[in-house]
Write a structure and sequence with these properties.
Order of helices and strands of chain B: HHEEHHHHHHHHHH
CATH class of chain A: Mainly Alpha
Oligomer: heterodimer
Strand order of the largest sheet of chain B: 1-2
Radius of gyration of chain A: 23 Å
Number of domains of chain A: 1
Strand order of the largest sheet of chain A: 1-2
Largest sheet of chain A: 2 strands, antiparallel
Largest sheet of chain B: 2 strands, antiparallel
Number of strands of chain B: 2
Structural class of chain B: mainly alpha
Helix content of chain A: over 70%
Number of domains of chain B: 1
CATH topology of chain A: MetI-like fold
Largest interface: A-B, 94 and 88 residues
Number of strands of chain A: 2
Structural class of chain A: mainly alpha
Distance between the termini of chain A: 45 Å
Chain lengths: ~280, ~290
């Protein structure tokens, strides 16, 4: 190696390390800011009390419940639909069938649609056309549309990891399709399914733009699925943008939201590992 | 394929139902995109009919209550924020991925990947909030007012960087190891290997990732709404406040009625069409094998 190229090599290496340090620094800055200002002043009361004075005081009790309901509706609708679609898709190789190809392409586009457009659609379809109004149900259904592509993609990966032999053997044994699915495919696909569900829940919890005009702003405790409910992310948005002096509680809410997301992630990798060890099929 | 094929062992009526249930699920999932397009079109047709497409670009200003519908300032805002953030995030994202594969010792690469994954999972409101309480005061000290195009670009950069880094990471992992061994056998230095072998081989994957990031940058709403100041104007420099197309929808949808509401759906339709175009581009690119 010549001297100049050696110097160049060293220059590039230090540049790359510099960039990586910069990115890590920004990461620690964001996490530190939220942890320091939100985590240090978090009390248990904050999680259970109702918000007072537009959220400046009190807690986030009803908001946590609304968030839970919204995400619950979204997952209850999208999981059965997504798993069904994923099974169908995993049984075909792509470009084998025009019908399947069309479904795949439209799911690809769906995955790229901006969340605000989902909000517009949810407002026009669920709130206006179906007459659900600003409600937890409208918000949940809008989110269900949004998480569907993510859910389908990772569930499909799970089903694809089952070797072809198992299909053939099951058919040779004359097993019914339902029992093939239930006893052979589904257990093998559980890790993929769980990863999909977690990604979906994470995306749904984090979503704001799609919910502003579908689930609404009301911060009371919801009593039915047709009540308007404010999600945690909307609460953070509202406190920081529209409520002066709302920053301390916005920090705490942001901390709670990130804590929930990290916990869900940890739980997911744990369960995925558990099922991975228990499965009968070695891939 | 076996699961759905007709065969002579078709003994169970429940099986036939199963197949139809699966088809039903898939069709519903696929219909959502068309429903979205349908509803966007349906809601925007009134204003397109009696105002016309051209006025969205040639009216004097955006003042929908007075019947003026110029979307251009917002389009420029979206474009500037997107171009700025993609220009910064793309090299950084690729460098992150290169770092994980070629520069970092294994444990550090592992930790760094975890950090990137955590960053990718942070909700956009939290990024926006951080921008609001940290970034804007900082920019305000350099050049008031704080909320500006620059704040938007920086927040968007931080937001799209992790996903870009993850997708670049995946496409670098796809480079065949024989290429690397070949270049090592030729005695190429690390940087020469990366520039001459790895990057060209991973080109299509990297491009696909960048295109999908462009889509995300265009579609991002909350974070950019919180840091950009939301003044309807074409920003003349990076310290001026501005408003993006997505922020415009989020801000005005709450009270918009009649033609105003329709006009917001028109901007939603524009976003939807741009994103569809980008997804198709990404699809075409990802299928192309450039280095063979």
């Amino acid at each position: 190696m010549t001297k100049s190229s050696c110097r160049k090599e060293r220059l590039v290496t230090s540049l790359i390390w510099l960039c990586v340090l910069l990115i890590s620094a920004v990461f620690f800055w964001i996490f530190g800011e939220i942890l320091w200002n939100g985590g240090s002043k978090l009390t248990f009361d904050f999680l259970t009390l109702a918000p007072k004075q537009a959220g400046r005081g009190g807690g986030i009790g009803p908001i946590l419940i609304s968030t839970l309901w919204i995400v619950g509706v979204a997952m209850a609708v999208s999981i059965p639909l997504g798993v069904g679609a994923a099974i169908l898709l995993s049984e075909f190789k792509s470009s084998e069938n025009i019908f399947i190809l069309l479904i795949r392409r439209s799911l690809d586009v769906l995955a790229g649609v901006p969340s605000i457009v989902f909000g517009l659609f949810g407002n026009a379809f669920f709130c206006k056309t179906l007459g659900l109004g600003f409600s937890i149900l409208s918000g949940g259904l809008t989110l269900a549309c949004m998480v569907l592509p993510i859910l389908i993609r990772s569930t499909e990966e799970g089903f694809r990891s089952v070797p072809e032999d198992y299909h053939l053997s099951a058919a040779a044994l004359g097993l019914s399709r339902i029992s093939t699915l239930w006893n052979l495919l589904l257990p093998a696909a559980v890790p993929g399914l769980i990863v999909g569900i977690v990604l979906g829940v994470g995306r749904a919890m984090a979503e704001t733009a799609a919910l502003i005009f579908t689930s609404g702003y009301v911060d009371r405790m919801p009593t039915s699925f047709l009540d308007s409910g404010r999600s945690l992310s909307i609460h953070i948005f509202d406190l920081s943008m529209n409520v002066s002096g709302g920053d301390p509680n916005a920090y705490r809410s942001a901390f709670v939201l990130m804590l929930i997301l990290v916990l869900i992630n940890a739980l997911a990798s744990f369960t995925a590992n558990y099922f991975f060890k228990r499965r009968i099929i070695t891939v | 394929m076996i699961l759905l094929k007709n065969n002579t062992l078709f003994l169970w009526p429940s099986d036939r139902i199963l197949v139809w249930v699966l088809r039903f699920c898939a069709v519903i999932a696929a219909m959502i995109v068309f429903l979205i397009l349908l509803f966007l079109l349906n809601e925007s047709i009134p204003v397109l009919k009696h105002v016309g497409m051209s006025r969205f670009f040639f009216d004097s200003t955006w003042s929908p209550t007075e019947g003026l519908y110029n979307l251009l300032p917002m389009l420029w805002g979206t474009l500037f924020a997107m171009v700025g953030s993609v220009l910064i995030a793309t090299p950084l994202g690729i460098i992150s991925a290169l770092f994980c594969h070629f520069y970092a010792p294994k444990p550090i690469a592992h930790i760094y990947r975890q950090i990137i994954q955590l960053l990718a999972g942070i909700p956009s409101v939290v990024y926006g909030f951080w921008g609001l309480v940290v970034l804007i005061p900082l920019i305000g000290q350099i050049q008031p007012p704080g909320p500006s195009l620059l704040a938007g670009i920086l927040i968007l950069t931080i937001m799209i960087l992790p996903t870009l880094a993850l997708s670049a990471d995946a496409s670098l992992a796809n480079v065949p190891s024989s290429y690397l061994k070949g270049s090592a056998a030729l005695g190429l230095s690390r940087w020469a290997t990366i520039r001459g072998v790895v990057l060209p081989a991973a080109k299509s994957g990297l491009f696909t990732g960048v295109i999908l990031e462009i889509g995300r940058a265009i579609g991002e709403t909350m974070a950019i709404l919180m840091v950009c100041g939301n003044v309807v104007q074409t920003p003349k420099n990076i310290f001026e406040p501005m408003r993006t197309l997505t922020a415009n929808i989020a801000l005005e949808m709450a009270y918009a009625l009649g033609d105003h509401r329709s006009a917001l759906f028109v901007s939603g339709l524009i976003l939807m069409l741009v994103i569809t175009g980008l997804v198709i581009c990404a699809e075409i690119l990802s299928r192309k094998i450039i280095y063979d």
